[in-house]
């Protein structure tokens, strides 16, 4: 299933001209439902556990291993996380907040984060937390589930197998 809203006719035309068109079914939103809202429309067509991938992600993973992890840990959602290093291009001033005396300058520090890749293994039970025709993003759904004490897990994947192409410069770097 591919959930569409913005420019849906162009995306359908492109995919319907491809040799893969028989593999797609479309959910065409009449209003934007966020990154999770349209899942309610496929409730009767999905299995107990399913893979959800944001459209602006390219990933090459062994999903069978991730599904095993998801089932073993009894997660309602497993977020696939990848490592992202962010370097601040400036010197970070570390100083005493009371006296304003400089302690040191940390030149161009790098920070490591485990970021949400936009790829999830989901249990169908999440659909009971999604209201039909009501917008909700995955981060909101995950926050709701964790607030209720429902188990959301994280699977660490190799970030060399993951690319975000949500911005033109990222997309162009992949297709060249």
Question: Would you spell out the secondary-structure blueprint of this structure?
Answer:
Elements: E1 2-4, H1 8-16, E2 26-28, E3 49-53, E4 57-59, H2 63-72, E5 77-87, E6 91-95, E7 102-107, E8 110-123, H3 138-147, E9 152-157, E10 162-164, H4 168-175
Unreliable segments (pLDDT under 50, ≥5 consecutive)? none
Termini gap: 28 Å
- Globally, the shape reads globular
Number of DSSP E strands = 10
Observed structural traits:
176 residues; alpha/beta; 21% helix
Question: Can you describe this structure?
Answer:
The protein is α/β, with parallel strands linked by helices. 21% of the residues lie in helices and 34% in strands. It has helices at 8-16, 63-72, 138-147, 168-175; strands spanning 2-4, 26-28, 49-53, 57-59, 77-87, 91-95, 102-107, 110-123, 152-157, 162-164. β1 (2-4), α1 and β2 form a beta-alpha-beta unit. The protein is globular and about 65 Å long.
